[in-house]
Design brief:
About 70% of the residues lie in helices and about 0% in strands. With about 210 residues, it is an all-alpha fold. It is elongated.
Length: about 210
């Protein structure tokens, strides 16, 4: 219905956004791409449209391009925190873990009044980071214990150090894999990134007509 609406009336903003939201939730990435590309063409600079274009980039694993898109999100009271969350996800998925985690932590107390699932997503990310750090610390402790015991007990060195180092690497790889599954994985595993708040007008703070 949304696709038909924007094909018949090219300047109906709500149709592009509605199509993008529904398509992303259904895992129809090609349909979401069509809606967001056309929407950005007819409504250049619209923060909600740019946001959804970035969501679609994320689904394709184009994290750097999504970050470039998000640079254009300005003066958007309803979606500033959502855009920060997306930037954090892109930075972490793209390899800049520290930067990404800092961005997500900066909005951990955000209410997301219209976006409860985004608040849930942010809590999931921070919980995973917390769990990862604890497991890495345990693995590194094992490695250090092996080094400390190496002089007196050679067997401890040959076992604990390799196990600790391998364990730390395994934890890092598992953490990143879980994050990527949430962003680009099967539809039933994906983190929901769009909501009613992004269907609000960016500057006038009024619902779409």
């Amino acid at each position: 219905a949304f696709e038909k609406a924007y094909m018949e009336r090219h300047f109906r903003r709500v149709a592009y956004l509605g199509a993008a939201v529904v398509a992303d939730q259904l895992g129809e990435d090609d349909a979401a791409e069509t809606a967001t590309v056309m929407g950005c063409r007819y409504f250049p600079g619209d923060p909600a449209m740019v946001y959804h274009r970035a969501v679609n980039r994320i689904r394709s694993g184009e994290f750097a391009k999504a970050l470039d898109d998000l640079q254009g999100v300005r003066e958007w009271p309803q979606g500033d925190e959502a855009a920060v969350f997306l930037r954090g996800l892109c930075q972490m998925a793209g390899g800049k873990r520290t930067v990404g985690e800092r961005l997500v932590r900066s909005i951990k107390h955000a209410s997301f009044r219209f976006d409860p699932h985004l608040a849930k997503g942010a809590r999931w990310v921070l919980a995973q980071v917390w769990a990862r750090n604890i497991m890495v610390a345990i693995a590194l402790f094992m490695a250090l214990a092996g080094l400390a015991a190496g002089v007196a007990v050679s067997g401890a060195y040959t076992v604990l150090v390799p196990v600790g180092v391998f364990g730390a690497r395994l934890v890092w790889a598992s953490w990143r894999r879980q994050l990527l599954v949430q962003l680009v994985g099967p539809i039933h595993r994906r983190m929901r990134l769009s909501s009613s708040a992004v269907l609000m007008s960016g500057t006038r703070q009024e619902p779409l007509q």
